[in-house]
Amino acid sequence: MEVEENKLEKDVLMLRQIMFKVMYNAGGGHLASSLSIAEILAVLYEKYINVNPSKPDWEERDRFILSKGHASIALYSILAQKGFLDKKLLLKTCQKGNSLGGHPDMLKLPGVDASTGSLGHGFPFGVGIAFGGKLSKKDFKVYILMGDGECQEGSIWEAAIFANQHKLDNIVAIVDYNKLQAIDFIDNVGSLSPLDEKWRSFGWGTRVIEGHDIQQISDALSSVPFVKGKPSVIIANTTKGKGISYMENVPIWHYRMPDENEVKIALKELCLERDDLKYI
Ligand SMILES: Cc1ncc(C[n+]2csc(CCOP(=O)(O)OP(=O)(O)O)c2C)c(N)n1
User: Fold this and answer.
1) CATH code, domain carrying 8
2) pLDDT tens-place string over residues 237-279
């Protein structure tokens, strides 16, 4: 178990290194929103999601939907780690002619199960896939990762009602509860608190975890459905910008690019040399 956890910790660091390189070479992107979900993606893809990079459209596969599609850097990085994408493509993210754009496109990239970016849409799309899975008596799960700010969208709660009504226990939703949305704190815009009670009152099995704790993520993912016959949601307390000290929990890093000095600090904190920025 300890060996497994050490490996996952290494995977997480590598994932954050790749994310930084992608953002640096693209000259932009939502890095802080991506750093927030590194552990969740590493544990999910290493241990739980049943997918096969050599058969990305295999019908029985589990689905993964990044409903907070602006964190595309995180999705591209984990898909490349898992062999869905050529790693060399990562350094050309957001460049002309590359299929890795600012938001993920399911028609262009293997391993992407929904084109997302307009918040509040990936989750209902995933609920529809889960309903289809039940109707066709397939056994796959649908994992959907969404933002907390995204939970202010009405479409999230319409879909939550539908999922409960149809007993979609094949859904595992994860809320990246980093308490920030774009450039302000959730509590200054439209508080969601108490978020777990809200989901429970919509009929969902809920669990609150520390979203950077590999063990807690793993325990939660291995315990679904939390309530028999009900959809499950994991509320993961996270820190936006996790892993780069000056980005952590600082709203402006939703959009901002680091200057030269800030790049130097980030490289040090991510155990990278400047030359590493040229390769993945
Ligand atoms: C429907 C819609 N409205 C606005 C935006 C612009 N937008 C992009 S990211 C973002 C903040 C989202 O906050 P959250 O879901 O908490 O994500 P995180 O803070 O983790 O990046 C907003 C408002 C959008 N992409 N879609």
Assistant:
1) 3.40.50.970
2) 999 999 999 999 999 999 999 999 999 999 999 999 999 999 9
